[in-house]
Every structure is written in C-alpha cells, then in structure tokens.
Amino acid sequence: MQSVVGARVALEAELRQGLMRSELFLHYQPQVAGDGGLTGAEALVRWRHPVRGTVSPAEFIALAEETGLILPLGHWVLQTACVQLAQWADRPERAHLSIAVNVSARQFHSPDFVDQVLALLDHTGANPKLLKLELTESLLVSNVDDVIAKMSLLKAKGVGFSLDDFGTGYSSLSYLKRLPLDQLKIDRGFVSNILTDPNDAAIAKMVVALAQTLGLEVVAEGVESEAQRDLLARQGCHVYQGYLFSPPVTIEAFEAFADVVGVA
Ligand code: C2E
Ligand code: MG
Ligand code: MG
C-alpha cells in the first residue's frame, strides 16, 4: 500500500517536471476513409521519460486527471494540435486534414475550457472546422446541461465533437439525442471481437445504425484486419482507425503516410 502510494507521488512529481521540461510529445494515428484516403488524425499524447523511455498515456492520464495536471497537459495537447493544423493549412495537400484531440472530463468541466479553446484557435489561426474534440461518456455523468451549453458554444465556432469509446460507458440514449455531436467512435473492444463474437458484431451494427439515424458520422477504432474492415463496411461504417492502416506515429511519419495514401 505504502509503496503504491509512494510510486504515485513520485510519478506525479516526475510528470509535473516532465511537463515543464517538454518531455511530452504527440503521436498521430491516421483516420482513413473507405476509399483508402486519409481524413485526418487522432492526436495521442506520449511521455518521453528520461529513464523509462516512452511512457503510454494509459500509465499517466488517470493520474493527471486526479492531480489536476490534466489541465496544463490538456492545454498543451490542444495547443500543439492547433499549431499543427495551422501549419497544414499552408499546404494544399494537407489543408483538409482534421485532428481529433482527446479531452478528459475534468478538463472539459473546468470553467475556462471554452475560452481556452477559442483563444488557442484565435492565436494559432487553426481552422475550427478541422479540430474535433473527443469526449467520453464519463463526461455525461454530471451536469449534462452544462456540457451541452459548452459544446454548443464551441460548435457555433465550427469545432466538431466525437463520442469516444462509444458503448463502454453509461450514456443514456436521451442525452445522445440532445448533445450537439458530429461523430460516434465504435470502441476498439467491440471491433476486436467483431468476427468471432456475434454480440460484439451486433453492437457494432447497432452503433452504426444509431449514428445513421441521428445523422452522425461513425468511425471504428482498433481496426486490425481487412476482414474486420470489410465487415464494418458491410455494416455501413466507412471511416476507420487502427493498426491495419497505421499505429500512432510521429508527425514526420504521419506526413510521409499522408504523402503515400493521399487525402480522402
Ligand atoms: P483512445 O482515445 O480511445 O485512443 C485509442 C487507443 O487505441 C490509442 O491508445 C491507440 O494507440 C490504440 N489503438 C489504435 N488502433 C489500435 C489497434 O488497431 N489495435 C490496438 N490494440 N490498439 C489500437 P493510446 O495511444 O495508448 O491511448 C490510450 C488512451 O489514452 C486513449 O484512448 C485516450 O483515452 C487517452 N489519451 C491519449 N492521449 C490523450 C490526451 O492527449 N488527452 C487525454 N485526456 N487522454 C488521452
Ligand atoms: Mg480517442
Ligand atoms: Mg477510443
């Protein structure tokens, strides 16, 4: 118990330092349309730890949320993504690529979240229509009216919203109807067993149908095989993300990928 607490305290101190020392960086994972063209990327944070090497977000995002470090961390991620969008805007072959950014519940609920995003868009010159914020259902457990109000303010400026890991949380379908969403992301957990577990296949199919009925885009995450992609396509899902296309990679590798596959 004591050593677990000690390790967490140490990790928190290291993460705080890591933020100040610019040890965080982003990987970009391609999002690909049915025709093979690229629609954009999801930005995924990593930590270049001086001793442990690259640390995955699974090991530090929860801690960052508990300690409040998610606020400066999340701001840095958003800023980096907006700067990237602004850079792509000058390149015709990349100017249409979008970037999806994960936003944690604590970050979204912070009182100045909307102002922060608007200021970042303003300062960087990024096109709000190419920024997509990925929210999770955990955000909806409290203050749904506040969530809707904030989303609406950002949406009015063009910012898009995606509901990540859809189907794994407790979202009520009546909330889903009220949220100004653009996209549902079928959780990797359903996609990974889609060929072998009829229940997961049925859930994926249901998410696609729900998205279509609500007029939302649908993206499947964690697509690893052509057979999975083909089944999803038959179910009506035409945008994919997963190792079949590319793992999350550095910005240089992402741009090289974009040059090879072309824009959707
Ligand atoms: P997520 O947003 O659901 O991101 C998708 C995760 O699935 C990523 O893990 C990605 O590397 C992984 N993935 C993508 N395709 C495949 C595949 O085909 N097979 C398998 N096995 N995995 C695949 P990653 O990068 O480790 O991120 C984990 C989670 O950490 C993310 O899940 C997200 O919830 C969180 N996260 C990452 N970056 C940020 C961030 O900047 N802010 C916040 N708040 N959370 C973040
Ligand atoms: Mg995500
Ligand atoms: Mg996800």
What percent of the residues sit in helical stretches (DSSP H or I)? Answer: 40-55%
| N to C succession of SSEs | HEEEHHEHHEHEHEHHEHEH
Please tally the helical runs, counting DSSP H or I stretches of 4 or more residues: 11
What is the average per-residue confidence, as pLDDT, rounded to a whole number? 95
Percent of residues in beta strands? 15-25%
Q: Which fold does the CATH topology refer to?
A: TIM Barrel
Number of folding domains? 1
CATH class: Alpha Beta
What is the level-2 CATH architecture name? Alpha-Beta Barrel
Heteromolecules bound? ligand C2E, magnesium ion
What can be said about this structure in brief?
This protein has helices at 2-20, 61-67, 70-89, 105-109, 113-124, 144-156, 173-178, 188-192, 198-214, 226-235, 251-261; strands at 24-33, 38-49, 53-55, 98-102, 131-135, 160-166, 183-186, 217-221, 239-241. The chain has 264 residues and is of the alpha/beta class.
Protein described:
The protein has 264 residues and is an alpha/beta fold. The protein has a single domain, classed as Alpha-Beta Barrel (TIM Barrel), CATH 3.20.20. The protein contains eleven helices and nine strands. It has an eight-stranded mixed beta barrel with strand order 1-2-4-5-6-7-8-9, surrounded by five helices. The mean pLDDT is 95. The site of ligand C2E has 24 residues, from strand 2, helix 3 and strand 6.
